[in-house]
Design goal:
The protein has eleven helices and 15 strands. The protein has 340 residues and is α/β, with parallel strands linked by helices. Strands 3, 4, 5, 6, 7, 14 and 15 form a seven-stranded mixed sheet that branches. A six-stranded parallel sheet has the order 10-9-8-11-12-13, with helices on both faces. It has a two-stranded antiparallel sheet with strand order 1-2. This is Zinc-binding alcohol dehydrogenase family protein.
Length: 340
């Protein structure tokens, strides 16, 4: 079978690999589409210290069941069923796992980062990680995992219908947060530097949008919230500017939810932490109920928006060129899918 591999910064190859053996507790998935995410882009750029050497990337998976191991409970999976995959591991022993939050497992290994991923014709995974998605196409299934990360951030922010939620960053994960906050009845303010992304954010549920490159962010947020600031700010960029902006602009007694990794140190005036009595929360990966919520959203009509989230579809042979183009202009990409 073919596998896409990032063998060095800026270098991608397609290699022949054996089809993986199917263990008694495994399901063999025929891969149809895999999405490139920001961690894959950072690996390609040589800026992902968590990635193993010469990694096969990919954890945004759309496929079909090909073969089922002997110990897999009968009736759960049928050949040809559309599925996606929960790509995270959990040790079951650390404090996160014991508290029922395996998405933040201290020893997590994500497909395509700390272990080889799914950018191959086939992948074998434990049956407990298979997420059935009957009614969706494998192409739509490849969008479930990144959307679920945004859904999880909204859950971390405990968003309700009385909240005003500002989402900073309208990439794929930020759009997931906008969709989920809108589904919960919140008033959503989308913030980005790109008008095309803001237009899509409004289509997906944002009530208002702010282009922070051409508008004064603080003034606009104050105008839209009667001077109070948003109840919840979800940071989905990962830059010092957006981290500081989230803390400065959130309402008193508000919640700040951080998804993005800032690669440089961030300097805060900690007075605001105390003066505003803020809840500042990290949001990592997603929980099974977040995957289920995204699938339900797609089945309930959200699939009409699925194609708008796909910036390009390429072959394995074109994967390296696609990453080069994305690296040169990262602000214009939602998701690139590799079709097998």
């Amino acid at each position: 079978m073919q596998s896409v591999k990032i063998v060095a910064p800026g270098r991608v190859v397609v290699e022949e690999q054996p089809i993986p053996a199917v263990g008694p507790d495994d399901v063999l998935v025929k891969i149809h589409y895999v999405g490139f995410c920001g961690s894959d882009l950072n690996t390609f750029r040589g800026k992902n210290p968590m990635a193993i050497d010469q990694v096969i990337p990919g954890h945004e998976i759309g496929g079909t069941v090909e073969e089922v191991g002997a110990n897999v409970p009968a009736g759960l999976f049928e050949k040809g069923m559309s599925v996606t995959v929960n790509p995270y591991t959990a040790c079951g022993k650390c404090s996160s796992c014991r508290r029922g939050r395996p998405n933040a497992c201290r020893h997590n290994e994500t497909l395509g980062v700390q272990r080889h991923g799914a950018m191959s014709d086939y992948i074998a995974v434990p049956w407990s990680k298979i997420i059935p998605a009957q009614g969706l196409t494998p192409r739509e299934c490849a969008l479930v995992e990144p959307m679920s990360v945004g859904f999880h951030a909204v859950d971390r922010g405990q968003v309700t219908d009385i909240d005003t939620v500002a989402v900073i960053g309208c990439g794929m994960i930020g759009l997931g947060a906008i969709v989920r906050a809108s589904l919960r009845g919140a008033t959503v303010i989308a913030i980005d530097l790109d008008d095309e992304k803001l237009a899509l954010a409004r289509e997906l549920g944002a009530t208002y949008s702010i282009n922070s490159a051409t508008m004064n962010l603080a003034d606009e947020l104050n105008r839209l919230t009667d001077g109070n600031g948003p109840d919840v700010v979800i940071e989905a960029v990962g830059s010092p500017f957006t981290y500081v902006a989230a803390v400065e602009n959130v309402a008193f007694c508000g919640r700040v939810v951080c998804i993005g990794y800032a690669k440089d140190d961030v300097s805060f005036h900690t007075k605001l932490f105390v003066q505003k009595e803020l809840d500042i929360r990290g949001s990592r990966n997603a929980m099974p109920n977040d995957f289920a919520a995204v699938i339900r959203y797609f089945l309930a009509g959200g699939r009409d928006n699925a194609e708008k989230l796909i910036s390009a579809t390429v072959t394995p042979a074109e994967a390296g060129e696609a990453l080069e183009k994305w690296s040169a202009n990262p602000g214009k990409v939602f998701r690139i899918l590799v079709k097998f």
